[in-house]
Every structure is written in structure tokens, then in C-alpha cells.
Design a protein that fits this description.
128 residues; mainly alpha; 7 helices; 80% helix
């Protein structure tokens, strides 16, 4: 499995868990319970985008620290964007509740995609 595909899959799976963490971080908020499906879908999409970007970077990076830092930055940036969109829509912004899981997701995907072995070159490329 190539690093971008691994990042995409891992980001999607962790995005689901990220979305479900809303039930833990705001257990008494009726808006969270009513919109949990939308939160999970949005977090999954955010995780997929984050994972694809980190996987692409991990394929080209030479340092684990750089990859994990890139993952943290991408995870925080996308989570901050979601928080700002919430605020602009008139909802209370949950910066801490959204950005913390987003940053952790980015660091985990960065670590995993960097540690994963590089995929073998395509057979057509080997025959040249």
C-alpha cells in the first residue's frame, strides 16, 4: 500500500473516531447529539483530506520529525478552519474540542505513514 493511500485510509478511520469524540467532549450539548451524523461525516472527510496530504508528504520527506510536524500543522489547520466555519454560521466555536483531536490525528497519520515501508515500483517501471 502506498503512503498516500495508507494516509487516506488511516485518516478516514481516525476521522470517524474524531467525530465520535464530540459525544465525549460535549456530552450535555443537545446540538451535538442531534447533529452527530453530520459531525462524523464532516470529521471523516476532514480526516481523509488530512491523511491524503500527509501521505503525499511522507512519500517525499526524509525525516520523521518533519512528517509528524507537517501532520500536526495540517490537522490543526483543517480543524481551525472547521471551528471558524462554525463561528461564522452562528454556532459556538469549539476550538479546543475540535483542534485537539485534529492535531492528534495529524501526528498519528504522520508517524504511521512515515514508518510504513515504501511501496514497490510499478512493474512497467521495472522493465525499463
Amino acid at each position: 500500500m502506498s503512503k498516500p493511500v495508507l494516509g487516506l485510509v488511516l485518516g478516514g478511520v481516525l476521522g470517524i473516531l474524531d467525530g465520535l469524540s464530540a459525544l465525549v467532549s460535549a456530552p450535555d450539548d443537545p446540538a451535538v447529539k442531534a447533529g452527530i451524523v453530520g459531525i462524523v461525516v464532516g470529521s471523516t472527510i476532514k480526516g481523509i483530506i488530512t491523511g491524503a496530504l500527509i501521505g503525499w508528504y511522507a512519500k517525499r520527506a526524509a525525516s520523521m520529525a518533519a512528517t509528524v510536524t507537517f501532520g500536526l500543522a495540517v490537522g490543526l489547520a483543517l480543524a481551525f478552519t472547521i471551528s471558524i466555519m462554525q463561528k461564522l454560521a452562528g454556532q459556538p466555536p469549539y476550538y479546543w474540542q475540535i483542534m485537539l483531536p485534529g492535531g492528534i490525528l495529524g501526528m498519528i497519520v504522520g508517524y504511521a505513514t512515515f514508518r510504513a515501508p515504501a511501496s514497490a515500483p510499478a512493474p512497467a517501471a521495472q522493465s525499463r
